[in-house]
Structures are given as C-alpha cells and as structure tokens.
C-alpha cells in the first residue's frame, strides 16, 4: 500500500507534465493560426518573414500587423484565466470570475469616468484607473456578499457581483451619453476585443501583468492551504487575511490591466479554471499555470473564430466568449445546487 501510494503522486505529475506539453503545443498552434487567418489568409513563409522583421509583400505586411494582436490575445487570455483561478481559490467560490463578480465592469467604469471627467489619455492613466476601479469593486462586492446569515456564500457573491455589474454598466451609459465626442470609442472598447493592437500600446501593461503573474505563481502553495479551510490553514501557520489580500491583489492587477487595454471580456475566468481542474485536479501549483495557458488558448481561439464567422468583418472576442461562457455559467449553477440567499 505504501509503495502504491508513493507511486501515485509520481504518475499524476507525469500525466500533468504530458498534459502541459499538449496545451503548450495547442497554444503555439493557435498563435500561428491567429497570425495566418484573417481577411487575407497568409502562408507560413509570410509568417516567418514577418517574425524576421520583413514586410516586403502584402502577405508579410498582414502577418506583421497581426503579431501584436496575437500577443495581446495571448497575454489577455492568460491574465483572465489566471485571475479567475485566483479568485476562485481566494473565495472558495466556484462562481468567482472577474466578469461575474463585477470587477471587469468596475474597472471599465473607472476608465470611462477618467476619460469623460478627467480627460485622461495616456496608457498609464488608463491602467491605473482600471486597477483602482477593479480593486474598489472587488472589496465592495465581497462586503455586500458577506452580509446576512452564512457569510459570503457562492450564490450571494454571484448575485452581488451581477447586480453591481448591471449598475455599473448603467452608470457607464449615463456618463457616456452626454459626451458624443467619446461615445463611439467607448462603446467599441466596452464590447471587449483585441483588434488594433500594437506593441507600443501593449508595452505599458507588461509590468502590471508580470507582477500579477509573479504573485499568482508564488502564492500557489498558500492557496492550497486556504482550500483546506480558514481554521486549518491558520493552524498550519498561514496568515489567512494576508494570503487572501495578496492573492486578491494579483487577480486585480491581472484583470484591471487587461480591461484597460482590451475592454471588459467576460467568462474566460469562469470557464478556464473549471476545465483545468478536470485535467490536473485542484493543486494550485498545477492549476494556475494551466489556467494561464488555457485562458490564452481560449481567447486566441475566440479571436480566430470571430474572424472566420463574420468575414470579411469580424466579431470581437468579448462577443464570442459570452456565447461560450453564458451556457457554462448556467450549468455550473445547476450543478452546484446553490440555494442559499
């Protein structure tokens, strides 16, 4: 029995390593397809030339223009998938997601207020406004969801987040309506997409995403302790409040920075961690990197699908992920049998 029990972790690690290699290869293939597919399909030679910095033909120019879009879809998907896994670990709530909890919409409202009332224009200002809005919204939703009997139950948090998201969406409309000069740009950004990306536009967000990624991976073991319950985690020497606060900060940096550059994109942080748990289980040391890779893959695939379905135009990724995520959200609610209000 002892030898068999000792062999189990080794077999699980080997299986997870193979699954990780498969996901890496799939994401690499999706990156290549993202560069190749569009209004004008291009060949692998054009992609190789674009990667080498050449843009002598129309195909090579098209490939070069799609490289930053592919990079943004990869980073945004990874950030959203990882932030969803973090929020689910921090709250022990299967419905936790930056979109469902209203965090993305809080970040969006802060950006819209900054643009309309304070005339912010720089990328850094957008990012800081989004992170501030995301943080304040996360605290607000958790406090509201904790009121009443039973504390912060999954359904109460989901309801508080949904109500906050709807209220903030209405406030965004109220702020934008009198400002015809910014209405078009805000409405397009609010759908959530990765079109029009450039490396110059992407650069300011990288330090925030890197910090969020680092916090997430360094706090994996502590999230495993939280999964055992607050009392047991405290008994194991964990500072539960500090662990929650820092892991929550990582999630806020990731979803706030992503919202600033892409707009609010929903459901990635809900769908991806559940899928990854089926692959690698609940150990956050595996779950977090898998969630980042799978989130990148989902957003890349959604962007590719949006280009194919609406040719010669395109559907923004926020629309595609909503079609995928809404039925999944309903299934999760039914599966969990969440009855408490």
TrEMBL record:
InterPro entries: ABC_BtuC-like, ABC_transptr_permease_BtuC
Transmembrane segments: 70-87, 99-120, 126-145, 157-178, 198-220, 245-266, 286-305, 317-334
Database matches in PANTHER family: FE(3+) DICITRATE TRANSPORT SYSTEM PERMEASE PROTEIN FECC-RELATED, FERRIC ENTEROBACTIN TRANSPORT SYSTEM PERMEASE PROTEIN
Membrane topology per record: Multi-pass membrane protein
Broad class of where this protein is predominantly found: membrane
MF terms (GO), sorted A to Z: transmembrane transporter activity
Record GO biological process: siderophore-iron import into cell
Compartment(s) where it occurs, according to its Swiss-Prot or TrEMBL record: Cell membrane
Protein's UniProt name: Transport system permease protein
Coiled coil: none
SUPFAM superfamilies cross-referenced by the UniProt entry: ABC transporter involved in vitamin B12 uptake, BtuC
Family listed: Belongs to the binding-protein-dependent transport system permease family. FecCD subfamily.
GO cellular component term of the entry, any: plasma membrane
Keyword terms: Cell membrane, Membrane, Transmembrane, Transmembrane helix, Transport
Gene3D superfamilies: ABC transporter involved in vitamin B12 uptake, BtuC (1.10.3470.10)
